[in-house]
Amino acid sequence: MQPDRYFDPDPNQREIARSLYDSIAHLPLVCPHGHVDPRTFADPNYDLGTPTDLLLIPDHYVFRMLYSQGISLERLGIPTIDGTEVETDHRRIWQCFAENFYLFRGTPTGVWLTEELQNVFGVEEKLNGDSAGAIYDHIATQLTKPEFRPRSLFERFNIEVLATTDGAADTLDHHRAIRESGWKGRVVPTFRPDGVINIDKPDWLEQINRLSELAGCEITSVRDLIRVLEERRTYFKSMGATATDHAALTPYTAELSDGEADQILQRALEGTASEHDAARFTGHLLMESARMSIEDGLVMQLHVGSYRNHNRAIFERFGTDKGADIPIAHEFTRSLSALLNKYGNDPRLTLILFTLDESTYSRELAPLAGHYPALRLGPPWWFHDSFNGMRRYRDLVMETAGIYNTVGFNDDTRAFPSIPARHDLARRVDADWLAGLVVRGIVDMADAEDMAQELAYGLARRAYKFDQT
To answer: Which domains, ranges and CATH numbers included, belong to the chain?
Structure first.
């Protein structure tokens, strides 16, 4: 890898970018949003499995590209819902992956994997069909060493705090085990109630029944649901949570009467709720969630714009999160009007917005965040978590919202070993972007150095209230 990768070819800008990057490269990693399984750290001797277990099977960024080229998920060892047969020879799966690694040239996934292989595992040659076996053996050997246990990697990666994402009915047993073990690594839960408030989810009834059982009461009204959610938030907060996370197709919010909300809930319990019902119910619960955040102090994240499970055949055979989620266009200004007019002026609320519709950055999100005290903008998310996506985001958001109405970077990953590579990319992109402001005379070097520190570390720490706990 080139030492000045991602920096502008102009020598003046490149020199400044290098200096800015060097000033932030070794800052601790703040990881406020992601999907690493907490059981990874609950057991000090947790086994990360084979190279295929670690780098391919759990990562939809990887296998969606291979699937797009006609390689079946069965061939890649992705488990099916009904347990029917898939490829189980992990060396054979790895060989297939390596032979097709060229597909990732120039993509964010290719960048992350290349850096991960080199900097985490010490791989010194390109991954391809010829090198596949030797690299597999090398990684497998590394994974047997104590220094490659998850807790050791956590410390080696210089992670200050890592937040997981946990369902409303999660017992948080793994988080409790981490706390009781005496290990000093900071791993905290994040409260995600989508499973019980998005009534259009295929397993909603199963989730609401599980929540009822955990709470020791039958949830038959919206007041019941809200009371249980408040109790669960309190429990999550006692276990170290500083934030909630919500995903919705659109950012629509609306306040319903108790009667209207209960009628929709009853139809959902009977299995007759419509798509319109689902949108209104989620919009109402988002309003309630904002109120709860004002009262209990948990930061509220809202991720919108993903049409989930677009490929029905894949969903029915393999389930969710299998690379078939597709961005859609949507609108914020009218959709968030109800929530922002009721709660957006309250500085006790922090609402962090994420979108997959880049067209809203300068048209809606930056103006909204540049006005409402409660609002902050999350970093480029998912499909836009890339060199070009980050540059577009900065250019479109900066002029109206500045950087201090944003929250720095988060890696949003399931692939634990990729975390340093993702943060390094973001820090390099931001250093180069700031260097461009310096050479154009928009900011001076002292301001750029301060902004680099904030983008890499300070903004995320403060936005997610990690500096208060």
So the answer is: 11-46+147-468 (3.20.20.140), 47-146 (1.10.2020.10)
Beginning with the edge strand found earlier in the chain, give each strand of the sheet holding 299-304 in spatial order: 166-167, 191-192, 243-248, 299-304, 351-355, 375-377
Q: Of 328, 321, 394, 337, which is closest to residue 371 (Cα–Cα)?
A: 337
Q: Are 36 and 466 in contact (CB under 8 A)?
A: no
* pTM for this prediction: 0.97
- Quick: pLDDT tens for 133-148: 999 999 999 999 999 9
Query: In sequence order, what E strands does 108-242 have?
Result: 159-163, 166-167, 187-188, 191-192
Q: Is the pLDDT of residue 469 over 90?
A: no
What's the CA gap between 314 and 311, in Å, rounded?
A: 6
Instruction: Please tell me the distance from the alpha carbon of residue 135 to that of residue 56, in angstroms, as a whole number.
Output: 14
> Which amino acid makes up residue 130?
D
Beta bridge partners of 354: 303
Output the six-digit token pair for 254: 């609306």
- CA trace torsion 406, 409, 411, 416 (10° rounding): -140
Structure tokens at 349: 């609320």
Quick check: 369 pLDDT over 90? yes
Q: How confident is the model at residue 1 (pLDDT cuts 50, 70, 90)?
A: confident
> Under a CB-based contact definition with an 8 Å cutoff, are residues 190 and 166 in contact?
yes
Phi and psi based region of residue 241 (left: phi greater than 0; alpha: psi -120 to 50; beta: remaining): beta
Residues in CB range of 32: below 8 A, 6 or more apart: 161, 163, 242, 243, 407, 410, 460, 463, 464, 466
33, 410 contact by CB (below 8 A): yes
Q: Which residues of 190-213 are buried (b: 16+ CB within 10 A; e: fewer)?
A: bbbbbbbbbbbbeebeebbebbbe
Give Cα separations from 110 to 98, 128, 386 (angstroms).
Answer: 12, 12, 11
Task: Read off φ and ψ for residue 304, nearest 5 degrees.
Answer: -130, 160
CA distance 359 to 378: 15
Burial environment of residue 300 by CB neighbours within 10 A (0 to 12, 13 to 18, 19 or more): buried
Radius of gyration of the chain (CA): 22
The answer to whether residues 426 and 432 touch, using CB atoms and an 8 Å cutoff, is no
